[in-house]
């Protein structure tokens, strides 16, 4: 009887031991799986994702710090300095991520004892917030419990409730209370607002220009003082131009920082809010090149978020330098010519509306802009007549250019089989129903008929020859005193052809905000005739220069550019830095004409200068070099509401040319809008400027030296514009 009992106990123990072992095995297996998964996960994180996480850590630790690297300088084609950086002493403040407003205020109070700070930039909002910070308890008590309850009862996020409450507190601060702030307190406020406007770990300029040697020395001596924690003295810089040439552009100051309308654009490119940026022309167009690369530092923080060590990662580098195609010596001389002629015009009769004059000279083979002159007559604050730089008007201001475009009209006629080389047309006054007589200037007598070929049409500037080309393009026959209806396609055909020369379209110049002029409508039909002689659509001086360059360059339209090279910054301050980029010549298109047709037009333009009936013979027949060109006059109405001469008929004058005739080195365009209110007495100042400009180019070329081409040279004039 006992044996079975013992056996049952033994079996029970065996079964229990077996279950325990099984469970332990499951537990150990589960632990094994967990450890395996952990090891695999760690291996995945380290091997597969290790580099990604390392980069993520670097992003959180490496902070771009604005060390105010010098902006790239700008030189002319001969290495003469045009835009420089001038060092200035500055006092900066850098706040940490953990810095409190109260701590910044204490630093501001201490710094105010050492420097003088202008308070003009302090705003009403600044004063209100500062008053609240100084008188927190009494200011917040101005809001009643009922007003607080009303705001709390609103169904809006808590953040908006606080904003409304803060606004209400500010509203209740009286002018008397704000006026109680002393001059010393306002100076502290002026410093404090500069401190708080920057990013954490990014130096903020507290006082830049105007720091005295004494202020710089006193602050420098106390940089280790805990009361001035975050304050530093550095050498900053300011932009200085050596000429008043407007196309060089301008930049913001650290006080101005990034323009509000482009804030997101620059912030997305790692700019700081107080960074200088280009705001116009070359400084804006080449911002990415000129800006330079900030230094990168890795900030090591302690457990409380305080920076205990700053480790340099990338020292950064100054901005790259620009070398222009413009010869500042040539530019200077041509500016004098244009200014002198403009003032002489303004002093003459019928000159109430003349105020601008433009001149562009370029290399037709490369597109290099050698000079771009724009001058505008104005008055200073004392009412004295002055002449200001208006060079940007050469590519933004558009006008009717008159007969200068007849070369494009004739070449369009050749391409469209509207006229053949050597073809004779009859120059005769034309009369269409409902319009006044349309004629050439030299042939105004009704029914007077003068036969002439294409060369003579260019030399004598026959309007009627061009009219008849336009009529043939429109497939219309002239009939005396009949109406003229022209299909819109005829206007489009002529404008598309003109566009091949750069007329009416962007030239592609490397400057922002280029104008393209105004394209008139497609009616009435006689406007097509006006288009053919430059009396309808408007063009810029730069377009006119590209147009004549295209003819001079045997039909190849080159993209004009004012930057020749991009170079690294100079290492010694005496020679230009290594070339990084060369702006190669760019062909935009070739016109749809044969070489024979282009040569025919060039021959006609040569006759304008030396032919017996040439309109520029008086100025160009005796040049020591060969040249060719075309003059132009255009009737233009002056429109400016409120002006006494609003709606008055005026005359624009223009001139295009190139030289030497056999192998052109230069192409030039001159434009003077509204030169006279008397169409019967038109001055030839356009021709005079063109001749003087071409003479000056060859004169300077003859004495130019190529010695030390990479040597940095001083500017032509002693002008300094800060």
TrEMBL record:
Question: What is the organism lineage in this UniProt record?
Answer: Bacteria, Bacillati, Bacillota, Bacilli, Bacillales
Q: Name one GO biological process term.
A: peptidoglycan biosynthetic process
What protein family is recorded?
Belongs to the transpeptidase family.
Which InterPro entries does the UniProt record give?
A: Beta-lactam/transpept, Beta-lactam/transpept-like, PBP_dimer, PBP_dimer_sf, PCN-bd_Tpept
Q: Which organism is it from?
A: Planococcus plakortidis
Gene Ontology molecular function terms on file: penicillin binding; peptidoglycan L,D-transpeptidase activity
Kindly state which keywords UniProt assigns to this record, in alphabetical order.
Cell membrane, Cell shape, Cell wall biogenesis/degradation, Membrane, Peptidoglycan synthesis, Transmembrane, Transmembrane helix
Q: Which GO terms describe its cellular component?
A: plasma membrane
Can you name this protein?
A: Penicillin-binding protein
A Pfam family = PBP_dimer
Give all residue intervals belonging to the Penicillin-binding protein transpeptidase domain: 358-676
